[in-house]
Write a structure and sequence with these properties.
The protein is an alpha+beta fold. The chain folds into two domains: 165 residues, 3-Layer(aba) Sandwich (Glutaredoxin), CATH 3.40.30.160; 122 residues, no CATH class. The strands form two sheets. The chain has an eight-stranded mixed beta sheet. Strands 9-10 form a two-stranded antiparallel ribbon. Helix 4 runs antiparallel to helix 5. The longest helix has 22 residues.
Length: 303
């Protein structure tokens, strides 16, 4: 991702609180503790200070750096400057760009983002802090723990993916799994185009192309109607990929933001988004559209 603008965040060292501004990659600590002016709605600097004080009691070691980046608190056991950079370049940038195009509401509670430096730290600390071994080597969002739990050693793509989920939860609680995961996975390989967040072709493409060639895809109407149990079931990998590249197609046609907003507005009468998709695309025959979409996907190349 590209470097964008400076921000102000609260950086917390184990020895105490200090405020840090962030022009480019360098920060000079000051003596006062104030949180970002962009504090999550209904959450105050005092809320974050109290939250950090409780977090410090739970830290597994003195290797952790804490950075308040509303509406999140970022905690990492990698080098302190790397944790600060992730909080600014990845977390803040992602939040700003998602809110620019899609979301108006922040999560209503403070959420923690745990950035564990490698697979060993990720597995050990997830067990220690949350009493659970991760089911994925990359990272996940746990609503019950109010936390995003990441193996940041694998890169920042999964972190961006997982940030989508609490914002979708806050803004579109009736969002079906296909769109929740389609948009999350769209931004696993992410950058900025014309000032807006942009998802690029990624590692999910070869598996989707294989499924297309084998004739193993479901129709969009059925995909969009899947409940959580069905979506995350035996064919979840293909479901994720099909959802992602439907969102990618809409993005490439300049229609994704419009689709999201129209679907959000019409969710009570169109709970799966299928009718909104037809209107957005201007298509009446969705079987024919899917054939053309499959040709579009088969022509893509992984970057």
């Amino acid at each position: 991702m590209h470097r964008r603008t400076a921000t102000i965040c609260l950086v917390v060292a184990l020895s105490g609180l200090s405020c840090t501004s962030t022009p480019a990659e360098r920060r000079k600590p000051s003596s006062t503790a104030t949180a970002s002016a962009n504090v999550a709605r209904n959450l105050t600097a005092s809320d974050f200070n109290a939250h950090v004080a409780e977090l410090k009691k739970r830290l597994p070691s003195k290797d952790f750096t804490i950075v308040v980046q509303p509406p999140f608190v970022v905690i990492g056991d990698g080098p302190a400057e790397e944790v600060r950079r992730r909080a600014d370049d990845t977390v803040k940038w992602t939040v700003d760009k998602l809110k620019q195009d899609y979301f108006t509401e922040d999560p209503k509670e403070i959420l923690d983002i745990w950035l564990f430096k490698d697979a060993e730290s990720y597995a050990n600390n997830a067990q220690l802090l949350f009493n659970a071994l991760p089911a994925t080597p990359y990272g996940y969002y746990s609503p019950k723990d109010k936390a995003l739990i990441m193996n940041i050693g694998t890169g920042g793509g999964t972190l961006v993916h997982e940030i989508v989920h609490p914002f979708m939860e806050a803004n579109f609680p009736a969002c079906p799994p296909w769109l929740n995961e389609g948009m999350g996975s769209l931004y696993e390989h992410v950058g900025e185009e014309n000032g807006h967040i942009y998802g690029y072709v990624n590692w999910r493409l070869p598996g989707l192309q294989k499924a297309i060639r084998a004739g193993n895809l479901t129709s969009f109407e059925k995909l969009m109607a899947l409940d959580a149990n069905a979506f995350y079931g035996d064919h979840s990998g293909v479901n994720y990929a099909q959802s992602r590249y439907l969102c990618y197609y809409l993005q490439q046609k300049g229609l994704l933001v419009k689709f999201y907003k129209d679907f959000h507005a019409q969710q009570k009468t169109d709970p799966t988004g299928f009718q909104t998709l037809k209107r957005t695309l201007g298509e009446s025959d969705m079987i024919d559209f899917q054939r053309r979409w499959e040709k579009f996907v088969l022509a893509l190349r992984q970057q």
